[in-house]
Each structure stands twice: as C-alpha cells, then as structure tokens.
C-alpha cells in the first residue's frame, strides 16, 4: 500500500466492517505502519475461520448455528450464535489489539442484529486500558443496524448474504439509520484527518 502512487504515507489507516473489522484489528495488531483503525460493527475476536499469520494461528470464536433465530418476516439473525469472547475457551480467539501502534474508532449500531457490537467495543476499551493504552473512541448510534454504509445509500436492513446464501436481517430503523450513516462518515473522516494528517479538530457526533 505504501508503494502505491495514490498513497501519500508515511502511515496507513484501516477501515473494516463486520468480518472485515476483525481482519483490520489483526492487521493493526501485527503489521507495522498502521496508525489509525476504524471498525464498523466489528468483533474483537477472530471469527468465521482460523487466522494464519507467519507461525501463529488464531482460532475462530466458537459459534453455534443452532441458535440462529428467524424473524416474523422469515429473515435469519445471527447475533445469538456467537459465544462470549471473554469465556475461557475463547481466550485464544481474542485479537491482541493492545499491540497496535495507533488509536481506534469503533462505530456501533445499537440495533445490530448480526453482532453484539457495543459489547465488543467495550471489551476492546477495557483491554486497551488494562494494558496502559489510550481508551478508544466509541460512537454508538441508536436504532441503527449492522450495515452502516456511506451517506445516502439506502439503509440495508436485510439482504441475501453473499457467503451464506440466506436472507439475513441486519436491523435498524430507516430514518435513524440514514442519519447515522451521514454522521458516521463525518466522524470517520475527522478521525483519519487527525491521526493521518495531524489535524487536531474533532467533530463531535450530533446524534
């Protein structure tokens, strides 16, 4: 990335959503030169499949597909399928984010029906502080679901999952979710400008 002509450097910022979020957490924890990381409704443990890096393997967070729920409309929700990352048998799946060089911004939809995103963000905050690191910035949006897209994208409350091939309900109330997408986009840009460009002005959330 640093060798790409469109990348100014000298450092890199990451933005990850859902499973992409825990991949970005892993990248920030193990790779050099990453100085700012944004996570949108992400888990603090490695999920879905074991993660291989050099001679290390981080196992996936234990899940139970028997706990999938079906809404009245026939959509599936996966929030209850994930076990607690703090349980002893899941400790090895936790990503050592305290090794990261830069700060974190967690964007949380409080009606996320795919992950317990607020809970995961709190785990991250407590873990970082326990290791003497800076508390991450956490912005929680009420009535906002899993898929927080750029501004003016139609709210994605449900869709056929590209991997699972099933209709999944993501949560969110359309008006509140749409407002959250506008605000979150501003927050993300402000965060990256501050930590990648050195601009210190912070735009506080209006929601």
Automatic annotation (TrEMBL):
Annotated ranges, domain BAAT/Acyl-CoA thioester hydrolase C-terminal: 1-197
Lineage: superkingdom: Eukaryota
Pfam families xrefs: BAAT_C
Record-given protein name: BAAT/Acyl-CoA thioester hydrolase C-terminal domain-containing protein
Organism per entry: Gorilla gorilla gorilla
